[in-house]
Specification:
The complex is a heterodimer of chains A (149) and B (364). With 149 residues, chain A is mainly α. Chain A has five helices and no strands. In chain A, α1 crosses α2 and α4 packs antiparallel against α5. The two termini of chain A are 16 Å apart. Chain B has one domain: Neuraminidase (6 Propeller), CATH 2.120.10.30. Chain B is globular. In chain B, β10 and β11 form a beta hairpin. With 364 residues, chain B is mainly beta. The chains are: A mainly alpha (149), B mainly beta (364). Chains A and B meet through α1 and α2 of A and loops of B.
């Protein structure tokens, strides 16, 4: 039980860090496209600043949003696994992907169609974020399967 | 002896508190229970036009609010930050009764909308000869960041602020769209031949300046165009706007995104203009006026910027492109959406929200 909770927290943190990576990438790549002098050190320092700021000084702590989305998605996956015979890695991977995708799609409904996560405005951005959710969910499913072995 | 000293100290304290709280002004409520008052245009001391974001154009006639809104206002999209917004009188209003309105206009049959500016002739209680002068392109899906303020340049051309639409912020750096721009048109909707980008085939010819976010106040003083704009979290700006100039948003900014993310780590770049003042944290600047009245001689020559957060007015002493002093005033009436000067020297405030008020600031 304790190990599961730790793994859940780790998967939430992985997802949060990946979402922030996408946010940072989308801003930095656009700045590069308009000839702003973005250096690797700019990129790294901005990424770490974002990890702090998006969790502690934004309008809503990102990690809390991801945690709520993952808890709901993983709970549904756990219930469905009682009837479905699919590997846990796939089930939780899909759950993680849907959790992040739901977050990106539903947040604008609460804010007059405004995308609070700027990195999720484009279809490419949404796809990348969804893939990051899949990776995080996959990680969680894999930890569960390892324990069964 | 101790009693006398006590009385003396009490007297000093009383006198100090009396004079320390002594303001030179007082408030007079002109109208209340208003539905999101947004833009105010003063015809004369007792006749005032103002917009309500929910779509009504209202008139205070001889000091009394007419109960019925003025008819003939086009349909507006009242959602989010959208609705009936900016209003300005024609420089020759006394002769031609012409006004200009800026609002969020729904695209028929679609989920998109855009910033639209119309001119119309004000009759007794209706708008006639309504003509569309400008529609921002392309349309947006969001109901935010319209800008929607207007000012006249000395040559009679009309400046319109067009916000970045929130989700489209990068478009402020490109000249093929109207997001994050100041637009300049003639009062018949045609494009002045001396606009800065008319000969640029890759640019929309109405564009006058670019790289703006959500411009909420604009005034022209002795030919100098002052404009204020909302930053994101922090980075609200007061700029001197000039033709063809790039004001940098979102490539340079002093603010952060609402998520907390860094939009840009840069605050300066060659070829991008710096604000003459910026605010971190945000004050959410809204309307702006330049005061030249006689009622408050000590305030003459100041810019007044109304602010929504926490709700006050910033009196800014400027010397062309230098800010000499900032003073916070009127911080006890709530969020202030607009501020205008009245010909009698008073100032008129529009407070924000579903129970907004128009308040006149007069001397005691």
């Amino acid at each position: 039980m304790t190990i599961n909770i730790v793994n859940l927290i780790v998967s939430i943190l992985i997802a949060t860090c990946l979402v922030i990576l996408q946010e940072t990438m989308s801003n930095m790549f656009w700045l590069i496209s308009v000839d702003m002098p973005v250096s690797i050190s700019n990129f790294i320092s901005t990424y770490f600043a974002n990890i702090f700021a998006m969790n502690f000084s934004g309008a809503i702590p990102l990690v809390a949003l991801v945690a709520v989305a993952f808890l709901i998605a993983f709970l549904v996956a756990k219930i469905l696994l009682n009837w479905l015979d699919v590997p846990k890695t796939y089930a939780y991977g899909v759950a993680g992907a849907l959790a992040i995708l739901s977050l990106v799609l539903l947040m604008p409904l609460a804010f007059y169609n405004l995308d609070i996560l700027a990195g999720g405005r484009s279809i490419l951005g949404k796809s990348i974020l969804t893939a990051f959710g899949l990776i995080s969910g996959f990680y969680f499913g894999r930890t569960l399967e390892k324990r069964i072995i | 002896m101790i009693k006398k000293i006590g009385l003396f100290i009490f007297g000093i304290a009383f006198a100090y508190s009396f004079f320390a709280n002594d303001r030179t002004y007082k408030y007079e409520v002109i109208a209340e229970d208003l539905s999101h008052p947004w833009g105010v245009a003063v015809i004369d001391k007792d006749n005032i036009l103002f917009t309500e974001l929910s779509g009504q154009l209202r008139l205070i006639e001889n000091g009394v609010l007419k109960p019925e809104p003025i008819k003939g206002v086009p349909e507006v999209l009242f959602a989010g930050q959208g609705g009936l917004s900016g209003i300005i009188l024609d420089p020759s209003f006394e002769e031609n009764r012409k006004i200009y309105l800026a609002f969020s206009s729904p695209d028929s049959g679609q989920k998109t909308n855009t910033l639209e500016v119309i001119s119309a002739k004000l009759s007794s209680n209706s708008l006639d000869e309504v003509t569309t002068l400008f529609k921002a392109s392309p349309s947006r899906r969001t109901a935010a960041h319209y800008g929607a303020r207007m000012a006249f340049l000395n040559d009679g051309t009309l400046l319109i602020t067009s916000g970045d639409g929130f989700n489209y912020r990068e478009q402020a750096q490109y000249l093929d769209n109207h997001f994050g721009k100041i637009i300049r048109i003639n009062t018949d909707g045609t494009i002045p031949s001396d606009n800065p980008f008319v000969s640029n085939n890759d640019a929309l010819p109405e564009i006058w300046s670019y790289g703006h976010r959500n411009l909420q106040g604009i005034v022209v003083v002795d030919g100098i165009v002052y404009e204020n704009e909302h930053g994101p979290m922090g980075g609200d700006e007061l700029n001197i706007a000039q033709a063809s100039k790039n004001y940098g948003w979102p490539a340079i900014t002093y603010g952060k995104d609402y998520s907390g993310a860094t939009i840009s780590p840069f605050t300066k770049k060659d070829g991008m203009e710096q604000p003459i003042k910026y605010w971190v944290p945000s004050i959410a600047p809204s309307g702006m006026t330049f005061y030249e009245g006689k009622m408050f001689p000590e305030w003459r020559g100041s810019l007044f910027i109304s602010a929504l957060v926490p709700g006050d007015v910033r009196r800014i002493e400027v010397d062309k492109d230098k800010v000499k002093k900032e003073e916070i005033l009127f911080d006890d009436v709530g969020r202030i959406r607009d501020i205008v000067s009245s010909p009698d020297g008073s100032l008129i405030l529009a407070t924000d929200g579903p129970n907004g008020k128009l308040i006149r600031v007069v001397n005691k």
